Amino acid sequence: MQYKKIIEEFYKSVKEGGNPLSLPEEGLEIYRNLIRHTVYEFLSSVFPLTKKITEDKWEDLIESFVSSQNFTSPYLQDLPFHFIEYIEKKDVFKDEEYLKDLLRYEWLEVEIFNQDVPLKESEFSWQNTYRLSNSARAVVFQYPVHHISQIGITSFKHKKGRYNLIIYQNPESFEVEYIQLTDFLYEILNSLESGNLYKISTEISVKYSVNLELISNHMEKFFKTLIKNRIII
């Protein structure tokens, strides 16, 4: 039997029971419990706030997730992405939309923390074309996930709106941090690769009725901050 097929049969026995590989039952049960425990502990460490809020159903949620997975990847770091896919597909939080945002925010914090920060700082020029680095994401949330620690769960879930964030890894402290953006700046960052910075900023400033000349010094300072923090390269 091919190795891949053996792995598939093994995980099938973990999910559904049975013993198609005729493994020793005692050992198989140990592996079943070990896999479930590992998945539970890992996802709990990635999504600590989501776990805290959903404490009464978190264990059942992990169990149903494990039972639904094919486990095609041997890497633990792939689990959070598949977990979020599962949550969205099953619409688990349909009555608690704020949890979808929180789940995604917590995952992004871990994903960005695991990225390598570019070593070299780019030069600033309005004529340059930039892009977001791998250690940064421009994201829109419906809830203020970045303020949940300050305002608490009760206030957080009642503040639905539009929150544009840059989430990035600080190149000096290596901590994951954020910058809140206006719609105008968010759209510029989402369009970086479509032309040089001056061209993009000019086009989008027209859309938002912004006088670019009046704020050019502030804009330059902002982009230099992004460059210094390796958010754009």
UniProtKB/TrEMBL annotation:
<dbReference type="InterPro" id="IPR018640">
    <property type="entry name" value="DUF2063"/>
</dbReference>
<feature type="domain" description="Putative DNA-binding">
    <location>
        <begin position="9"/>
        <end position="87"/>
    </location>
</feature>
<protein>
    <recommendedName>
        <fullName>Putative DNA-binding domain-containing protein</fullName>
    </recommendedName>
</protein>
<dbReference type="InterPro" id="IPR044922">
    <property type="entry name" value="DUF2063_N_sf"/>
</dbReference>
<dbReference type="Pfam" id="PF09836">
    <property type="entry name" value="DUF2063"/>
</dbReference>
